[in-house]
Amino acid sequence: MQKLEVFGGKKLKGQINISGSKNASLPILAATILSKKKIYLSNLPRVKDIETMINLLKSIGSNIKLTKNKKSLLIQNDKKLKLYAPYKLVKTMRAGILVLGPMLARFNRAIVSLPGGCSIGTRPIDIHLNCLSKLGVKYKILDGYVYASAKKGLIGARIKFPKVSVGATENLIIAATMAKGISVFSNCAIEPEIKDLVKFLNKIGAKIKWIGKRTVKIYGVREFKENKFNIIFDRIEAGTYMIAAAITNGNILINGADHKIIKTEIELLKKIGVKIIIYKNKIRVIGSENIKNTKILTAPYPGFPTDLQAQIMVLLSKANGLSIINEKIFENRFMHCGELNRMGAKIKTKGNKAYIQGNTKFKSAELMATDLRASVCLVLAALAAKGKSKINRIYHLDRGYEQIEKKLKKVGAKINRIS
Fold this sequence. Notes:
Elements: E1 3-8, E2 13-17, H1 22-31, E3 39-42, H2 48-59, E4 63-66, E5 72-76, E6 84-85, H3 87-90, H4 100-107, E7 109-113, H5 126-133, E8 138-142, E9 145-149, E10 158-160, H6 166-176, E11 182-186, H7 192-203, E12 207-212, E13 215-219, E14 227-230, H8 235-247, E15 251-255, H9 263-271, E16 275-279, E17 282-286, E18 295-297, H10 309-316, E19 322-326, H11 337-342, E20 346-350, E21 353-357, E22 366-368, H12 372-384, E23 387-392, H13 395-398, H14 404-410, E24 414-418
Parallel strand pairs: 2-15, 3-14, 6-7, 10-11, 18-19, 22-23
Antiparallel strand pairs: 1-23, 1-24, 3-5, 4-5, 7-9, 8-9, 11-13, 12-13, 15-17, 16-17, 19-21, 20-21
Helix pairs in contact: 1-2, 1-7, 4-6, 5-6, 6-7, 8-10, 8-12, 10-12
């Protein structure tokens, strides 16, 4: 099994290019099932979750290949598809459930395995299923699979999501593009990745418009057209490398990130003492030895993202005084705290709150990753620690970070992948 070897204590300096968004790419890839026409997708990140989704699409019959210049992926679903998403391809990736909506929209039936992913909470799909039933879907769950059908096709409906859910919003928007009549969904998630999905769907012929901050109106269509689409940048990757600059007291230029999309993260980093300079599609981050303590509440966009909670916790361990993080999205997302404490951090958890005592001098250690964002937070702590750290189970890391060793080496980190 592969692991990362990190020699910490170096100030990171240089430039990092941000990859395309994993969390935007996955629903867009699933949505290509809707169309018989050629779709070209560019700026897809080369990470394990994207590879898994591509293999899932291939397994149901999608024709997928790289263009001659190898800069875009060409996808075409003009042949008969198998309406079955197996456990072996869905078990490692939460986004596998997103093929349910487009299968039902185009073919009126689907068999999809219940999803897997990181062990950070229950993340049930009951909202997906209950809302799809309001579009005319009948379903049952047998042996870990969802058997769903809409014999008369999907029918537009007015639906209010019982809670803000990224996955359910994506699945329902994709499904409703082909529903008969008009759908209006309220209390939607409005993450930039969802806005990118809507942008993509409209480019291929859907009729979707936002009629309120969290309300979307969808006019059902029957046909889609050929188009090309460039995926948005990965805001979580950008935030992670911004924190890497801060925690190593470094100076990194982040390329390809729109500062308006990560305004909350930038404002927080500035508040706690990190120097940030904004350019067009570039952000310079300069670390400080004087990090201030703070309180953070994770929340749906535009709030502070839960996917950066573990990373910011590492930085707050270096702050002056006590910081508190209130995790409001997932109930089991503090598994990294034990490993950080082994490196010298002083973190206590109670319920959904973490109390981080600052002024930590991280020590090198051998570590175990528990999920995607926890794995990268251990990399950040190892970069700040003196000596050699080893991080095990980095397959979690490979699910969401493209060429992380290469990017960190480029800015001066000493980091190697070993077997």
